[in-house]
């Protein structure tokens, strides 16, 4: 993320604390934001504001920067809770927060960071952004519920439509649709209604691409553990497609291994599942699906931005979005 | 809580969900609010608004009701996360949410309810209430951090001042100070600065009284498990006072038993600790401490409300506060 966003986040968070315990609290709040992160969502927001004519150093740019900082705070508190919910081991190359401080303190730190997100929204002075953030967080929580509930209830009897619905709610709104909307609002523009269709397609492409990278990505470039989705029992388009066309024996074997708790999973057996998936045509199927969604989404976004006055900035935004939807890390 | 608050909360939350999983999500969000709860904080807020002249059926009363509903939503999302953090078994006579649906889904439901709290604040139309809620939640989270961190790091080397600081942050702000402030704001009044001192004393009395009831309360009237604080390893004024004056042998024995994880605790051994505490003078000491705080706080509050125009409503508010600080259930 941009240094000026981290500066803004820093200025909101408690500086130290006059006891060792309150110093630890302050440090826990700063931990994830300081680990960095690509800052893709905040870049989309700022890029949209630029496309709509916001000039650096203008008051509108300050608004956009506060909203961008709020998006990063959103990402960070969600990741703290997400890492607990998935019992992830690592985040951005270091142990997850709950693995450093235990689950209770990490839940509480996530709740506090959630409040600082609202503080950043408030600082932007864009009154409507409060309602936008409410809708954004609620969409994400609804998608997150589906994702987690399928793991919890061992539900594998799912269609492509089920998967797409979950991914749109969980990823597309906060990764694409709301960054576009908030960037427009910072510029004093009414967000284009077409952002929604464009963002649903682009967000879906982004997530499917992430699912693909989780299986076949370059460990040196991809920030998370390769195969981690299998360990966490995530339902992905790849797995659902593969399950629908594999042999009954492999299907049975797969479900049996996947339905074990993370700690009960055998590393060798998971490696074998990885190999089955990689050798199947399902990775290709998912990649083609993502490519189609990316093309559809980019075309829709180009149209939605047809009246954006800053054409160079608009082209840059479309370029960023393309990289995002077809990323290899 | 008052039926009109539950009606307001109901109107914000998702009604059903068009799949069984989304129906479960909607049901999880409604679960804690529907279990009832005394609604003491919302009563204080509404009582303060009345004392400052707000008439039922007036627009100011609608504002106050939305803020009261937001306070109840705060209490409910915090309790969902609290129950996970303490690994509580029950809440209001039923299994805790995470014991019904697992930790991941319950964390997520708490996060969503947190957003609905902001929605209720927003509905009140009292713009400053947003900042008040931010400060309130952050104070509470800071106190919660101390409480949880002492358990996590097995810290028993604590003074009375440490305990009082934690309790003020964790309980006094959201139980007394902010309900008073928000009630005044709903009435269009600047909150009296003396609310803080009054509320710190009253909130402390409330919490110490809760600690006492947790040891010697009437199981039929007290909503939580008698002795539950010991199972959760809570630091209380009673325990800290007792540790400071007991024999080295009993101290050693106590700390050894308390430092075990909840699931490793032996019920019979905890019963014995309960007996030691009950037989000591420490329960009396804590009760006297709470009584002094209650008297100080009530006097301060009476002065702070000297200029409140509705004298009957003011007397009723002081009466509610007195019951709260000296409650026996």
Q: Care to describe what's here?
A:
The structure is a homodimer of 329-residue chains. The first copy, chain A, is mostly helical and 329 residues long. Chain A has a single domain (3-325), classed as Orthogonal Bundle (Farnesyl Diphosphate Synthase), CATH 1.10.600.10. Chain A has helices at residues 3-12, 20-34, 40-51, 59-85, 97-101, 103-124, 128-152, 160-186, 194-216, 228-231, 237-245, 248-258, 267-279, 282-304, 311-325; strands spanning 90-91, 94-95. In chain A, helix 1 (3-12) packs across helix 4, helix 9 runs antiparallel to helix 14 (282-304) and helix 11 (237-245) packs across helix 14 (282-304). The relative contact order of chain A is 0.11. The A-B interface holds A 21-22, 24-25, 78, 81, 84-86, 101-105, 107-112, 114-115, 118-119, 122, 130-131, 134, 137-138, 141-142, 144-146, 148-152, 155 and B 21-22, 24-25, 78, 81, 84-86, 101-105, 107-112, 114-115, 118-119, 122, 130-131, 134, 137-138, 141-142, 144-146, 148-152, 155.
What are the key terms here?
mainly alpha, Farnesyl Diphosphate Synthase, globular, two-stranded antiparallel sheet
- Enter the CATH topology name of chain A: Farnesyl Diphosphate Synthase
The largest interface is:
A-B, 41 and 41 residues
Distance between the termini of chain A: 16 Å
Oligomeric state as shown: homodimer
Question: What order do the helices and strands of chain A follow?
Answer: HHHHEEHHHHHHHHHHH
GO molecular function (chains A, B): transferase activity
Keywords (chains A, B): Magnesium, Metal-binding, Transferase
Protein name (chains A, B): Polyprenyl synthetase family protein
InterPro entries (chains A, B): Isoprenoid_synthase_dom_sf (IPR008949), Polyprenyl_synt (IPR000092), Polyprenyl_synt_CS (IPR033749)
């Amino acid at each position: 993320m941009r240094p000026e966003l981290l500066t803004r986040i820093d200025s909101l968070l408690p500086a130290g604390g006059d006891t060792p315990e309150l110093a630890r609290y302050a440090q826990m709040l700063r931990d994830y934001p300081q680990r960095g992160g690509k800052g893709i969502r905040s870049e989309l927001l700022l890029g949209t504001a630029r496309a709509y004519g916001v000039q650096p150093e203008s008051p509108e740019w300050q608004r956009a920067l506060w909203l961008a900082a709020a998006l990063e705070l959103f990402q960070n508190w969600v990741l703290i809770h997400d890492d607990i919910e998935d019992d992830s081991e690592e985040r951005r190359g270091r142990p997850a927060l709950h693995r450093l401080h235990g689950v209770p303190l990490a839940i509480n730190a996530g709740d506090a960071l959630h409040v600082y997100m609202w503080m950043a929204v408030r600082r932007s002075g864009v009154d409507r952004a409060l309602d936008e953030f409410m809708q954004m967080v609620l969409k994400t929580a609804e998608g997150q519920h589906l994702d987690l509930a399928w793991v919890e209830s061992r539900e594998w009897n799912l269609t492509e439509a089920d998967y797409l619905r979950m991914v749109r709610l969980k990823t597309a709104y906060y990764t694409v649709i709301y960054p576009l909307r908030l960037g427009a609002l910072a510029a004093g523009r009414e967000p284009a209604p077409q952002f929604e269709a464009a963002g649903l397609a682009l967000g879906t492409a982004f997530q499917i691409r992430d699912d693909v990278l989780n299986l076949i990505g370059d460990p040196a470039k991809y920030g998370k553990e390769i195969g981690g989705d299998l360990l966490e029992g995530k339902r992905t388009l790849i797995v659902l497609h593969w399950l629908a066309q594999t042999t009954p024996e492999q299907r049975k074997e797969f479900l049996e291994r996947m339905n074990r708790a993370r700690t009960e999973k055998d590393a060798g057996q998971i490696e074998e599942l990885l190999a089955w998936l990689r050798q199947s045509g399902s990775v290709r199927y998912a990649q083609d699906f993502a490519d189609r969604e990316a093309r559809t989404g980019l075309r829709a976004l180009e149209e939605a931005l047809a009246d954006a006055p800053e054409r160079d900035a608009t082209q840059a935004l479309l370029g960023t979005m393309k990289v995002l939807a077809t990323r290899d890390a």
